[in-house]
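Researcher: Sit down with what I've pasted below and flag anything odd:
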Amino acid sequence: MITTKKFSLNKQEFLKLLLIRYWRRRWWYWSLVFGVFAFLGIYGQDWVYLNSLILLVLLIPVLLYLQFRRYVNSPKNRVFLLERYFEIDTEKITGYVEGDLSSIKWEHFYKTEFIRNHYLLHFSQGQFICMPVECFQTEADREWFENEVLAKLGK
């Protein structure tokens, strides 16, 4: 069993993680959209229509950024930013946040991701545990986590 250091995410880190996750899952959609606009730019005749579409494509990422920023700053999502630490063994992970503890067995996790020096451990759609690489007490603890836990989850 290993115990992590206490850590917390700041709003900027959390926002970056969410945006990267979004773009990784939707890259194909945006490639298709930009491909269509490139095609229309070459063969399109109606410049008013084309300019409106280009404005829309430029506006959508800004609106998505604002939506994610609002989500991160919401008081309902404050729990993601609280200081925490974890106890990890081969059966479960136990999180300690503001004196409360919560355990989740490894069999409930279905996916892991590694983004910007953070491990994201998904246990349901849209719910995950985020652990920065620096939260491990030693390099041996991090290696044990990767070899025992992430290998078990299918990394």
In short: The chain is about 50% helix and 25% strand. The mean pLDDT is 87.
